[in-house]
Write a structure and sequence with these properties.
It contains 2 helices and 17 strands. The chain is mainly beta. Strands 5, 6, 7, 8, 9, 10 and 11 form a 7-stranded mixed sheet that branches. A 5-stranded mixed sheet has the order 12-14-2-16-17, with no helix packed on it. This is Tumor necrosis factor-inducible protein 6 protein.
Length: 210
């Protein structure tokens, strides 16, 4: 399995299907959406805002991590972690990191949009986890042309490998994806290994396809 692509903007999620299974009697079916500085955003496989505080903690623990602290979330935001989706983090707090202000996201604010400590732990949100030892790759790209390839190419990528590339262009410029080589695990439902493309600043809106 390997991926080699000349592209402008993409999200690549290379993850074994077994991660969506049972462990210790609990079914874990969340989606790893984005990561920076060990902090990553997950939502339930059922959709946005479907995790209670207990379930959010279980999602992070399942992957060897824990709920991110406010300080860890802010550190990730400082290097470009921008997600327009509220999620649980440490000690029952809810909020989300904003890098770029917008009328429809963060109320025009830059920083951590903080909903505070929630008294009702049965409220349902997404979750922000922290695991500095997790496997990750990707980054922010601004070059006019760039060849991106999976870690270890042309060898197979590792199990549970997560890659997130955010390619930025100027207003009015177009983005072109040209796949030179693409080989992932055979799965017609695209639940094991897959690539997703978003035409937006974040990975919440502008879904273009999988």
């Amino acid at each position: 399995m390997h991926v080699l692509a000349l592209l402008w903007t993409l999200v690549l999620l290379l993850k074994e299907a077994q991660a969506w299974g049972f462990r210790n009697g609990t079914f874990h079916n969340s989606i790893w959406l984005e990561q920076a500085a060990g902090v990553y955003h997950r939502e339930s496989r059922k959709g946005r805002y479907q995790l209670t505080y207990k379930e959010a903690k279980a999602v992070c623990k399942y992957e060897g991590g824990k709920l991110a602290t406010y300080e860890q979330l802010e550190a990730a935001r400082q290097i470009g972690f921008h997600v327009c989706a509220a999620g649980w983090f440490d000690r029952g707090r809810v909020g989300y990191p904003i890098v770029k202000p917008g009328a429809n996201c963060g109320f025009g604010k830059v920083g951590i949009v903080d909903y505070g400590y929630r008294l009702n732990k049965s409220e349902k949100w997404d979750v922000y986890c922290y695991n500095p030892n997790s496997k990750e790759c990707g980054g922010v790209l601004t070059e006019q042309q760039r060849i991106i390839q999976s870690p270890g190419f042309p060898e197979e990528y590792q199990d549970e490998q997560i890659c997130y590339w955010h390619i930025r262009v100027r207003i009015g410029q177009r983005i072109r994806l040209n796949f030179l080589g693409f080989d992932v695990e055979d799965d017609t439902s695209c639940l094991a290994d897959y690539l997703e493309v978003y035409d937006s600043y974040d990975d919440v809106s502008g879904f273009a396809g999988r």
